[in-house]
User: Fold this.
Amino acid sequence: MSEQAKCDFCSELDPRWSYPATDFVALQIGAILSTSEGSWAACDTCRDLIENGDRNGLADRSAALWVVANPDSAEVMECLRRELRRIHDLFFTHRTGKAQPIPAEVRG
Assistant:
């Protein structure tokens, strides 16, 4: 069984948009690399934030929904929000085009 698609910004299920992007290193700690490869999926709400250039709102939403799903992380929410904002800024740098709708048959 395949995992249901999630928004790459806030983890909401069934994202309807895809932003093309080039690959980039999102996090490096010594020899450990976390990379972003290819396009980013976005839900309607995150797409609206992206299109309006509301990077702080995007980071706020992403961090808040992370804490809802992972309540033990509430104590580090501000640090989490800053790190998400940093990664989102990398997305904006590496985005190569406008949002494209993800066809319903692909979304499942």
Observations:
- The chain has a mean pLDDT of 93.
- The CA atoms of residues 65 and 71 lie 10 Å apart.
